[in-house]
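#onboarding

Welcome to the new folks! Below is a worked example of what a typical request in this channel looks like: someone posts a single protein sequence, and someone else replies with the predicted structure as tokens. Don't worry about understanding the tokens yet, we'll cover that in week two.

Example request:
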Amino acid sequence: PYATMVERKKKGYASVSFSGNQYAVDYIVSGASPEVKLHVFMPKVVQKKKAPKANMYVNYYLGGDRDTLDFSVDGGEWQLMARKETYDPELLLDVLAWDTAEDLLEGSRPSDPNMSSHIWVAPLPSNLPRGQHTVAFRIRDMFGRTHRTERSYLIK
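Example response:
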């Protein structure tokens, strides 16, 4: 069943692999593909503006201060994201859905979230031409590996 820890890390387990005297650690999300390493939260639609008003949040489940996250919009220049101790917005939405419901929802209300130390944040560009845009996210972890994913959004 779907479950998360209070800082929004999906339930799972750590796996250690060894090669000679080197090691690497992976976080394996229960019931998911081993390639699932992160969760991206960002608006699907934004208003065209000169200055961004919305942020992108990346929850890299095994993330720490020795990892680097950056993003590129439409194949452009890579830009660093800032690691920030904050709440995962998706977990806040889960709690707010319960707290603002007009009727009792199925299941159990999630716990109030804890701050997470594995969230990276950057402004979502809104000064690009109107239309669909693709954001590529790249993680370079402390073991020298690279993980990638993409999300799209619309500027109106």
